[in-house]
Amino acid sequence: xxxxxxxxxxxxxxxxxxxxxxxxxxxxxxxxxxxxxxxxxxxxxxxxxxxxxxxxxxxxxxxxxxxxxxxxxxxxxxxxxxxxxxxxxxxxxxxxxxxxxxxxxxxxxxxxxxxxxxxxxxxxxxxxxxxxxxxxxxxxxxxxxxxxxxxxxxxxxxxxxxxxxxxxxxxxxxxxxxxxxxxxxxxxxxxxxxxxxxxxxxxxxxxxxxxxxxxxxxxxxxxxxxxxxxxxxxxxxxxxxxxxxxxxxxxxxxxxxxxxxxxxxxxxxxxxxxxxxxxxxxxxxxxxxxxxxxxxxxxxxxxxxxxxxxxxxxxxxxxxxxxxxxxxxxxxxxxxxxxxxxxxxxxxxxxxxxxxxx
Length: 358
Ligand code: PHE
Prior knowledge:
Largest sheet: 8 strands, mixed
Bound molecules: phenylalanine
Order of helices and strands: HHHHHEEHHEHEEHEEEEHEHHH
Shape: rod-shaped
Distance between the termini: 103 Å
Radius of gyration: 43 Å
Helix content: 40-55%
Structural class: alpha+beta
């Protein structure tokens, strides 16, 4: 049987050397467990002579107490050390700058649509919508563009495969079908804008197959060309934030308006930089006119009692001009660097106050 003092010394050394709580537990089991060295030594006492047994028993009990005490002390020390290292590792440095949360930006198209809606809201317009997938009637026929009309070819229409009932649907080539839907759905007077997507089978530096327009329609008893001019002047001056912005109304042709015009805004170029405002140049920005009597009749309105004007404007075009975006195609490339550069922070959203304050 191992000598109690030798056993004690070995175990105390192992306790002192235990580097963590798990190792210490192993030492405890090896000494005091059911098959531990001290436990085994205690069991061996029975085989000794009574006088030897007393002395050895005392020595073993003392060793056991010493070992148990040493284990408790070491356990407390290791526990403290573990807590200290956790506290050190999980320490929060409250003086570090806050981590920035990545925030998205508003696409320039959405921004410009919102600006236009805010401006028209100030003028008493409401927003109307129509489907992107249209039929021939709303996109063409009702707009005074009959079957064989050359304007149909001009529009480079995307047609969908014919449906079971033989009808061929198409992607609307302009927002003007919303004029038709509005006049057919509700009685006049009307004062609406229709912002939305439009589609033409066309793709080059200045055309994308999908683009955006904002349509306008005003129908009342005595609405005339003067109202059209005033409305578009207010629109352009507010939108481009140039109070004396000159506008030029050029005679033009659209099947659904008569007379028709194209509207240009003044600009100048100095050192290759385009500036919106009074100058030697002109930029075309929208098409407009007095609603053709045939269109009114097609929508069930009597042209002797109702008249008005309509206009259609390309959103990409005015966004490019206002915000100096040089290339149309970049609008739809979803390049994050472009979006971060040209996008708008949410707080830049226009409010009604923004429109009125001008
Ligand atoms: N719909 C025409 C286009 O897309 C624009 C327009 C709208 C012209 C309303 C006159 C009146 O070119």
